What we know:
Shape: globular
CATH topology of the largest domain: Rossmann fold
Number of strands: 22
Oligomer: single chain
Amino acid sequence: MVNEKSASxxxxxxxxxxxxxxxxxxxxxxxxxxxxxxxxxxxYADPGKQLGIEQLDVGEYVSVFGEVVSAEVLANAxxxxxxxxxxxxxxxxxxxxxFGKSREKLAYxxxxxxxxxxxxxxxxxxxxxxxxxxxxxxxAMVSEAHGESEIRLQATKxxxxxxxxxxxxxxxxxxxxxxxxxxxxxxSVADSIPKAVCDAENLLPVTTAFEYLHRPDNEAQWRxxxxxxxxxxxxxxxxxxxxxxxxxxxxxKRRPLPSSQSxxxxxxxxxxxxxxxxxxxxxxxxxxxxxxxxxxDQPMQRLLxxxxxxxxxxxxxxxxxxxxxAGAQAALLAPTEILAQQHARSITKLLGPLAQPGPFAAAPExxxxxxxxxxxxxxxxxxxxxxxxxxxxxxxxxxxxxEEKVKFFDLGLVVVDEQQxxxxxxxxxxxxxxxxxxxxxxxxxxxxxxxxxxAFGDLDMVELREMPPGRQPISSYVVHTDxxxxxxxxxxxxxxxxxxxxxxxxxxxxxxxxxESELASVDAVLADLQVNLALSGIPIEAVHGQMKADDKDAxxxxxxxxxxxxxxxxxxxxxxxxxxxxTVMVILDADRFGISQLHQLRGRIGRGAEPGLxxxxxxxxxxxxxxQRVAAVAETNDGFILAQKDLEARAEGDVLGVKQSGRNxxxxxxxxxxxxxxxxxxxxxxxxxxxxxxxxxxNPALKQAIASLSDTQQANLVKS
Length: 720
């Protein structure tokens, strides 16, 4: 054991702590002093009023000093176990109750709460069978190292509670940290945040922050300590990402794809002249921005976020035409065959003469090719030949574009539509088919990880908020299925829309009915609606992902033409279906869908001159997570607001990994949903530091912090 203050951050814990404790901490990946001091409390237990047991009132948050009289583990009648410990303050008694799935889960508490042991117990007073109790109280026990007076003093301060397990409770970790802090030579601790940045942002020095984080006297100490380490995490990651971008800028070049201003010779100019509508101000602004990006020798990495129906496809098409004008080729990746086919039809129609053979069988100025898993052999061969031969091709397809046999002569621009349906690796697999091609990803509702990457500066986001003239709003309502009259009115309303010549989508979470699930299924709902008196005489068909591509396409063509005005579908129609006559969408068991899915589904209606109506049927409790998701979608049509709600609900995923969303993250304190301002500030500081000192030689502690990122984090900096 080292007693004098000579420990440094790099010292192994086994040199400072008892061997048994050091081995226990290995389970938490805590090997060095630095690891341990950066192991952040998950929360702080507030000190309760220190009262005698006779002074306690139900509902009061208190701290009680007492001695354990007895403790035993009992089986619950409905499964599981509970530990009942009785403590006394010398005159009165109080129960402590802890619950666990097994006796083993409660064993460590039973060892700590043995008769005669004394400690301070903090929690909210409740009553059970006329007996006062604290349920799962926080506590600190008197030990040889911590006497009664010290424990009583500690009880007046916030108690840091650390992520722990049964073998190593939070108190063991807390005491280990205190012991290491007592031995730390503060003069040996270098701050990874430069002093100028600390001063500008009024951040605590690192050694003070360590003390306040782990041994706070009050909330006014631990909060700024945590904020300091949150900023430090942002600065380290933003600097690492900025360094990566600088390295990429040196090593990753591609041939510029400049725009041509000549209307007579430029495909972009001819396309603009032929459009039957005027581009919105937003479409022109973003088009100019993308044009500048394509003309640079650095690959563009843009995220285009635009409301459903805002005209993202036209913006992307103009960028693809610029790439083709410059002698390169373009590819558009779509998640479903329905969407890919829809894009091929709509883009060919938009291009008009540019995509049609000229007089005397002259080749078109733009060759639009479609490649999906169900493409005929002859069509597949023609598409592959056009890409490898260097023709001015715009290749549209599904995951089939990722196949090894698909090769390009010069892939200049990759467009990924509805990017929330693709993983990072799929996106990069298509980019690898070119020499550092430009990338444009588009979505109406970004997945949490994408928002995170924009916050970290990996994707440069542009927003298209303007809607084309004439687009009508969509009204959304929650229909609770326990209100039978509302449900009946839903189908009456559907019939009314059909009589007006409109189309209706009915969406189900499942294809087939099963005994195991009560969720609405396409086959069962189709059968029910075909005998529904309100819909009598109206043709209804089904469409889902297990149908053959040609059959799906045929159903959708009949739907578009009005031969079949109602389709019962799964989320196969979530993206890409553009039918102006579709005005109503009924989503059954709406609580089973995510916010992004509901918004995407709703975007299939209201695409013409008539207003849209979305009815969200659910049996979920309004206070449940599913009920809240449905309510959120009903409250707003703003995809930007919904994307933020989605981020808050789902978390951003592993920003330095490949998970699209979820709670397991490489981040320790940062949460992108709440910390956008911190990330923005840190990115600006990172860029400034690297502009003055690209190698960070004048900031060795920051340089070391970046080098200390895990191998996984370092590897995924390249993938992000």
